[in-house]
Structure formats: structure tokens, C-alpha cells
């Protein structure tokens, strides 16, 4: 049986169709890798550079500890809906939602990096969690209305904390809890904190 070939009109040579498949496949792989890498490089060109740095187990444990302590001190039956600003791969929010002793009613992760959103959804699926209890949104955290949430968690950088504090003051309702990891809010005194170097967390009650 004769093999099907494709003629290259420019060179006069015949190109095997499988070769076109390999070329197309390689092009698709390059495009996917470029798109994924660009999502991680793009933050460096934004007004406020907020790179993805995975939370450590110590950080996640400190966040849970400080929230649990506040829930007990306030005798709250629930910490209500929670939003994680800059949720990354979703590990912090998933961990908090799995903690039944914290009593969150629902969780929303806000992340601008779409590949991380996909990975977060996959992590949530593997953890047996999904909508409507837990969801991740690909959007700019500065454009999200925070008034619907009772608890806010944020992993920020020092250069953004002043602007973030202004946003929190304008949008949060009374008795809203805020946990800032790594960097504190610049002018608002924290109600509690766990000092642990890069794993430090700061708690605020609005």
C-alpha cells in the first residue's frame, strides 16, 4: 500500500502527513507553555507586583489558629463567608474550608492568574469540595466588592498594604475579620498577631 504524502509546492519535496502532525503538536505545546509562563511573568509589569509564593504549612496553621482563637473569644457560631485575596493555588482557602471548627459558610478565592485558578479548582475537586461551598474567580482583587464577606484573608506585599487598608476601610461592614499574612496593615492596630518571621500573621477586627 502506498503511503499518503503531501507535496510542498515551494521545494518540490513530498512531506509525510505525520510530520505535519508532529509540527502542529510542537506548536501547540509551545503556545501552551508560553501562555502559562506569561501568566506568572505578567505580575512583574503591573503597578503592584504580587508574585505567586506558595503558603507554607506554618503560615496556614497560624492563620487557622488566630481565626479559631477569635471565634472562641467572640463566641461566634460561624465566621461567615470568607474571601482569600490573591488565593494562588487555593491551598489556604481549601485548608480553612476543611476546618469544621472554624465554621465558614462558603469560600471565594480571588486570583488574577488563570492557570492558578484552574489548578485551584483541581485541588478543590481532589479535596472533595466544590460549588457552591467553594469557588475560585479569575479577576482583579481591587475590583471585588468585599462588603459581602465576614472574613478576609490576604497574602500581600509591603507596597500594596496601604492601598489595601483604604479599600478595607471603605468596603467592610462592622465586625468583619481580616487576617494579613507576612505584612501588616500600616496604620491600623492589630487586635492579635502571631510573630513568626515570614510566617507571621496579623488579625484585625473592623
Automatic annotation (TrEMBL):
Keyword Chaperone: no
GO BP of this protein: methylation; regulation of mitochondrial ATP synthesis coupled proton transport
Residues annotated as transmembrane: 20-42
CDD domains cross-referenced by the UniProt entry: AdoMet_MTases
InterPro entries reported for this sequence: FAM173A/B (IPR026170), SAM-dependent_MTases_sf (IPR029063)
GO molecular function: protein-lysine N-methyltransferase activity
Domain of life of the native organism: Eukaryota
Keyword annotations of the record: Membrane, Methyltransferase, S-adenosyl-L-methionine, Transferase, Transmembrane, Transmembrane helix
Family: Belongs to the ANT/ATPSC lysine N-methyltransferase family.
Protein name: DOT1 domain-containing protein
Gene source species: Opisthorchis felineus
Amino acid at each position: 500500500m502506498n503511503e499518503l504524502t503531501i507535496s510542498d509546492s515551494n521545494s518540490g519535496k513530498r512531506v509525510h502527513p505525520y510530520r505535519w502532525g508532529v509540527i502542529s503538536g510542537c506548536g501547540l505545546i509551545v503556545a501552551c507553555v508560553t501562555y502559562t509562563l506569561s501568566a506568572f511573568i505578567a505580575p512583574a509589569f503591573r503597578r503592584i507586583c504580587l508574585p505567586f509564593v506558595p503558603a507554607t504549612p506554618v503560615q496556614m496553621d497560624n492563620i487557622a489558629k488566630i481565626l479559631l482563637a477569635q471565634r472562641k473569644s467572640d463566641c461566634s457560631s460561624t465566621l461567615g463567608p470568607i474571601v482569600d485575596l490573591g488565593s494562588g493555588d487555593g491551598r489556604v482557602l481549601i485548608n480553612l474550608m476543611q476546618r469544621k471548627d472554624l465554621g465558614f459558610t462558603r469560600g471565594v478565592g480571588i486570583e488574577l492568574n488563570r492557570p492558578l485558578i484552574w489548578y485551584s479548582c483541581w485541588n478543590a475537586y481532589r479535596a472533595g469540595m466544590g460549588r457552591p461551598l467553594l469557588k475560585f474567580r479569575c479577576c482583579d482583587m481591587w475590583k471585588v466588592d468585599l462588603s459581602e464577606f465576614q472574613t478576609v484573608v490576604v497574602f500581600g506585599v509591603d507596597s500594596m498594604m496601604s492601598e489595601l487598608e483604604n479599600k478595607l476601610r471603605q468596603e467592610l461592614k462592622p465586625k468583619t475579620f481580616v487576617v494579613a499574612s507576612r505584612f501588616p496593615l500600616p496604620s491600623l492596630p492589630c487586635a492579635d498577631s502571631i510573630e513568626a518571621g515570614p510566617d507571621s500573621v496579623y488579625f484585625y477586627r473592623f
